[in-house]
Design a protein that fits this description.
single chain; mainly alpha; two-stranded antiparallel ribbon; 2% strand; globular
């Protein structure tokens, strides 16, 4: 394996992830900017769940039934977690203060949408799992590049590099919407940025084969995370589009932009990405499943 090439790719992934996750801290998120960012994240999560996680899960498990079952389990698990845990306002402090002022003076203020700690935690976990597999895939592609050409590793690297900043942006945006402390956001951003290089390291240490051998477990985990992403987008983020009678066009465009990024990542992945989209063959003693 070309170690220098792999380390270089991982270094770029680390940097772009840190930059993407730092954007909410660099920009002053006004009420409108925050809602646009959340709409973008909602589209991104829909695209990641429906175009990446769930198809990859089906390929890993070789069973559409099992994939959908685990997706539903993830959706329901997060839904009930959100019902249990405390609600946090999904808005900027300035907007919250204005709403409190209106309430104090007897003016009618619409109920604010909500974000919860489970939202960013489950998002970080799901994207973290996907990033770990990205690292394994990247290392595998670089290793394959020795016999199949450097374009194999380069294609995988570009796919990861292009979507990693948006993944990190999604996590830190949701953390800021949940009013997490800046120090916590910075630490989570650093840890999240290191996940893909960690996956590459696991592959080089010989653990990548173990991860990729457990197809059923990986598929179930990806489907579960995909279901949780659908729940976050459908019950926590997409209601923003209905809650705000103003800025409808901006929020709708941001939603479509998020989906567009997920589509472009799929185009960049093509057939060179490490995740196989062909279902694994059933064993001789197991009938093929739908």
């Amino acid at each position: 394996m070309n170690t220098i090439t792999l380390v270089s790719y991982c270094a770029v992934v680390l940097v772009v992830s840190l930059v993407g996750g730092s954007i909410p801290s660099w920009l002053r998120l006004t009420h409108t900017r925050l809602q646009i960012a959340l709409s973008f994240v909602a589209g991104l999560m829909l695209g990641i769940a429906l175009l990446h996680m769930i198809p990859h899960a089906a390929a890993e498990t070789g069973s559409l039934d099992h994939t959908v079952q685990w997706t539903l389990a993830g959706f329901l698990a997060l839904f009930f977690l959100q019902r249990v845990f405390h609600y946090h306002s999904h808005d900027t402090p300035e907007a919250e203060a204005a709403a409190d002022c209106c309430t104090a003076h007897g003016a009618h203020a619409p109920a604010a949408p909500t974000a919860k700690s489970t939202t960013w935690l489950s998002t970080a976990f799901g994207l973290g799992l996907h990033s770990l597999l990205d690292g394994v895939a990247l290392a595998a592609a670089v290793a394959a590049g020795q016999s199949h050409g450097v374009s194999v590793g380069l294609g995988a690297a570009l796919a990861v590099i292009l979507h990693k900043p948006f993944d990190a942006l999604a996590v830190t945006t949701l953390m800021q919407a949940a009013n997490c402390a800046p120090k916590l956001r910075r630490w989570v951003n650093v840890i999240f940025a290191m996940v893909t290089p960690l996956g590459a390291l696991l592959f080089t240490l010989g653990m990548g084969e173990t991860l990729e051998a457990n197809h059923a477990v990986l598929g179930a985990a990806l489907a579960f995370c995909g279901g949780s992403f659908l729940c976050i987008a459908a019950s926590d983020l997409l209601p923003e589009l209905h809650f705000h009678s103003h800025d409808r066009a901006k929020l709708s465009i941001a939603l479509l932009a998020g989906i567009g990024v997920a589509v472009l990542v799929g185009v960049c992945e093509g057939d060179e990405h490490g995740h196989s989209h062909e279902p694994h063959e059933p064993t001789a003693t197991q009938p093929a499943q739908r």
